[in-house]
Amino acid sequence: MAMPMESPITFSNIGKIRWWQRGLFASQTGYVLLALAALLVIMHFASPYFFTEGNMQNVAKNFSFIAIATLGVTFVIITGGIDLSVGSMMCFSAMITSMVMTELSAPGSPLVHMAVDGKTVLANVPGLILLISLLAGLGVALIAGLVNGFCIAVLGLSPFVTTLGMLSIVRGLGYVVSNGRGSFPGGPDADYFYALTSGDVLGVPVPFIYLVILALTMAVVLHHTSFGRHVFALGGNEKAAELTGIPVVRVKIEVYVICALAAGLQGIIISGWLGSAPANMATSYELNVIAAAVIGGANLAGGIGGPLGAIVGCVLLEVIRNGLVLAQVSSYWQQTLVGVIIILAVLVDRVRSRMT
Amino acid sequence: MTKADATPVLELTGIGKEFGAIRALHDVDMQVFPGEVVGLMGDNGAGKSTLVKIIAGNFRPTHGEMRFAGSAVHFNRPVDARAVGIEVVYQDLALSDNLTAAANVFLGRELKRKFGPIALLDHKAMAARALELFGELRSETRPDDLVKQMSGGQRQAVAIARTRLSNARLVMMDEPTAAISVRQVEQVLGLIHRLKEQGVAVMLISHRMPDVFAVCDRVIVMRRGEKRADKPIHETSPEEVTALITGAKEAA
Asked: What pTM was computed for the model?
């Protein structure tokens, strides 16, 4: 993005903003990244176990468990909205996925035809059941996201209230469909399912690989497509966005759908790691997810945020959790500390923007 | 400025607007020529904003006919007005603070480059074109600076550059000098001159008498929904316009 220097304009009295006062360096994400680096150094000296391969894998896996949903909610936060239904959405998608998987594999099920070999027809195509159940799990997320988006963008309800309602609706549905018991991935494709959700490739946990791919995609979408530009414009000045002819309703619905899909995918991945989708899974995860996004620099007022911030926020939360365990501090302190960090991160940013 | 082009860019005949029993506008005729700066003045409730909103496509007139560059037009939505070449610079400028100047100029009509099935933003082309537009407006504005860090005059330049992008033929500016410093007012008036030089017709809606007299070729005074005066600027005076606005003088 080099600016053509043969420009006819001379800037006589408008100074150029220094490189360290713009972009990443002037953002909350930058400061939190610095804090994270400092924390890693401290942890290295505090515990000899911290930088071991096993612990690093553990950390990478654990933060990946909320980071994908955080990417999704970051989209919503950039537009100036909020999605409180992500925790419930994780649970419901995971539950539907494993229920469909089990149901389609069960010989006695009314939904499937039996083949001659005693297995269901679907089970004879490897991976087909898995594919259908994943699509079912993401499908319910898609529907919930559409409903959220419709209520907020078309009916004009407040995002907080709409998604608070959806939090309850989706959690309730989870209890209804499973009768409160939750569900387990089963059938012939369960092994594929576990490999895809909690396996690893060359020692790298697969959730982490998904996270990296999704984060890079998100960076491109946010900064190099007109959709991303419109997402930022919406958060910066919604009325202006409307006046300049941006399809505000469509963009809003799209971000809530993206958020719900990310939460659904996240839930499915978590259930692979847990080996089940209990009905109380991911309860209050929406708070962790939103906290991570905010710590990473997403501004709840809208207009600011990005994938790097989302990941940095998640890593910071996980390193603190991990660090407290290694330092043998009571894990009850964790939540308190997370709260302190949320406030500190936002406070540092406020102080900085006052100074410049 | 001579009226080289005899066809008015905008011609209103007998425009009227009623909201239920309230008559907001009555029988307004007016013409705006290319490269002409027309001041639209009047007290609050005189019908200025209703008139602007009709021209911009926000409202449909109850009576009368609107012609743009010679042909009759009917706008249902603001997009329709924009499509023929009418742009509005809103009082609050309608800019996104968190985006760069170039991003704001191109908001909603971004330049893209195709990479197979994916269309990505062409940052370079947008920055270059924005710089060109700022150059035309002689505004010291960097395309990749955030709008949030800009002065009021620069913001105006960004909003006006947006209208240049679409090659608007009529630009309506709603109180562009209302909330900015003296030095910035000068910049904005300069920007209006630039538009005029390029043959764009400008309608300046303003309360500030000195600004209207500094840039306008003609002044139209509205009062109680009617056009009370339509005079070349050199045939009138601030005193007369004030009298027309307040109603001390009925018509001129």
From this structure: 0.85
